[in-house]
Amino acid sequence: MKKLNVAIIGTGFMGRAHSNAWSQLGKFFNIPFEINLKCVAGRDEEKTRKFAQRWGYEEYTADWHTLLNRDDIDIICILTPTDVHKEMAVAAMQAGKHVVCEKPCALTWQDCEEMAAQARKAGVVSYLNHNYRRVPAVALAKKMIEEGKIGTVYHWKGAYLQEWGINASSPFRWQFDKNIAGAGPLYDLSSHAVDLARFLVGEPKSVMAMTKTFIAERPGQQDGEQKVIPVTVDDAAFMVLEFENGALGNIDSTRYAAGRKNGNTFELYGSKGSICFDFERMNELEFYDNTVPACGNGYKKIIVNGAGYPYSGAWWPAGHSIGYEHPFVHAFYDFVQAIENHSEITPNFEDGARIMKVLQAAQKSAETGKRIGLEEEV
Ligand SMILES: NC(=O)c1ccc[n+]([C@@H]2O[C@H](COP(=O)([O-])OP(=O)(O)OC[C@H]3O[C@@H](n4cnc5c(N)ncnc54)[C@H](O)[C@@H]3O)[C@@H](O)[C@H]2O)c1
User: In the chain, which segments carry CATH 3.40.50.720?
Assistant: First the structure.
């Protein structure tokens, strides 16, 4: 069987999530490749060595550039903060590697377009990891929309709520630095929500938004010293969207919603029915069938796992829940098929550019107080 050699850059949260998914892929899904964890790149040599040992990588390096000119690496996964995504992705694609990149795609939509252009030029497969698309319940929602069960979509209510910013003594980290992250929850969390809105409703046409920073500075390490460091991103971002197909929506994101650990939710209301999803109950999809007479009708809870549902049949018998890590495996299943078939996977860097344009329009709206059309200069 052909081998696909995988290298990752970054040994943090996503380093673990991607390593786990690559390890699981060939055990649960039939793929025409043997997946080989070839090399992990980090910044701290000793930490990277330990990571390689724990996750079963053959090699490690403290310099990601050394991955580029090796013939024995096919895929590079970029699992680092946003400011270095473009540099790493373009270099990897110029070297002929297929690329998986974490969200948000890059700091600007223009950077994402450069990444997309390089993917086309190099003829490689690019995948932007908006993993929530491949939660079986979300994939089922897409299928139901395509089958016409929802009818004309009128409303999208999306929210991505977390709580980890609310403690003022929580130390400064890269997610609070505009130069590295580009924005706060507006990019970090709303990028996922905009991806889902584009996936399930369509292209946004115009945006209005408000953002807020509640805690202006935090304790943290800088240049080896303990300091009080200014927060340069939003702590919360609320936006209202008009879609090209006429639907209206909103997306709220925050790190200040006490009690919401990873509250990624949406509600979608159409002429024939409604769908509701809550990631904290990710094995369920709620469906209201508006074509059934109101008497006796209510939201139906569909337990989305087991054979017959998207991706689920590869795992466990019906009713045996899956978790956060599984949609990463689903994404890599589709990604390696795109490599095999010389086809594409979505979302890719072109989608990344469209998502970033919406988010940058929201940022501009928050600054100017104006509604911003996506055809305008963003
Ligand atoms: N898909 C998701 O649901 C999801 C969830 C969390 C984070 N993310 C995204 O994943 C990316 C990484 O986030 P994380 O939470 O894993 O961060 P993290 O801070 O846990 O890990 C980042 C890693 O990148 C390494 N790194 C930073 N700069 C580097 C460089 N120049 N060269 C080599 N390594 C470098 C760090 O040493 C660290 O190992 C971000 O883009 C983030 O938005 C996605």
Answer: 2-131
- For residue 110, how many other CB atoms are within 10 A of its CB? 15
Cα 75 to chain centroid distance, Å, stands at 18
- At 188-226, the pLDDT tens digits run 999 999 999 999 999 999 999 999 999 999 999 988 999
| pLDDT tens figures, 282-325 | 999 999 999 998 777 899 999 999 999 999 999 999 999 999 99
What's the CA-to-centroid distance between 117 and ligand 1, angstroms?
Answer: 24
198 in Cβ contact with 351 (< 8 Å): yes
For the CA of 17, the closest atom of ligand 1 is 16
Which residue from 182, 173, 181 is spatially nearest to 215, judged by alpha carbons? 173
Return the SS3 of 24: helix
* Residue 152 CA to ligand 1 centre (angstroms): 38
Q: Reduce the DSSP state of residue 197 to 3 states and report it.
A: helix
Tell me: the pLDDT tens digits for 104-146? 999 999 999 999 999 999 999 999 999 999 999 999 999 999 9
What is the rounded radius of gyration, in angstroms, for the C-alpha atoms of the chain? 21
The residue among 10, 174, 131 whose CA lies nearest residue 77 is 10
Q: Contact, 71 vs 3, CB < 8 A?
A: no
CATH code linked to domain 2-131: 3.40.50.720
Q: How remote is the CA of residue 103 from the centroid of ligand 1, in Å?
A: 10
Say how far apart CA 324 and CA 16 lie, in whole Å: 12
pTM of the model: 0.98
Domain 133-344+355-367: CATH superfamily is Dihydrodipicolinate Reductase; domain 2 (3.30.360.10)
Which residues line ligand 1 at a C-beta cut-off of 6 Å? 9-15, 41-43, 64, 79-82, 84, 102-103, 129, 131, 188
Q: Which atom of ligand 1 is nearest to the CA of 15?
A: 16
- Tallying the residues shown for the chain, one arrives at 378
Which among 63, 64, 79 is the best mutation to test ligand 1's pocket, defined by most ligand atoms within 8 Å of the CB?
79
